[in-house]
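>> received
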Amino acid sequence: MHLIHAPELSDVAEYAYAARVTPPARLVFTAGACPLDAAGRTVAPGEPAAQARQVMANLAAALAAAGARLPDVVKTTVYVATTDRADLVAVWEVVRDAFGDHDPPSTLLGVTVLGYPDQLVEVEAVAAVREVG
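>> returned
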């Protein structure tokens, strides 16, 4: 996988503008990771950043179950149920921190509502795992 930072585009964005996957690689598509604990309860109602931390832990667990890791992610979509840009920024900071130096292309959206009661954050991802051997 190669993350592409297009020099013609603004460097304000905290992510690569594109990603290229070179064969052989196995693609992993995740469902949206939600801020649910092991018992299926929505954590931290009303707290977007706290929910984002749970979401990223759940995303990492889903990727691990498929034989992938966060550094294998080539694209994310981040949904935040809000009309407040500050909530978007707070969630984005948690997501970016979870990826560390890895900055896959991402789309950040403010949406009206998400699927679970009190849910404010959801993140879906596509990963590419290099096949060895």
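>> The radius of gyration is 15 Å.
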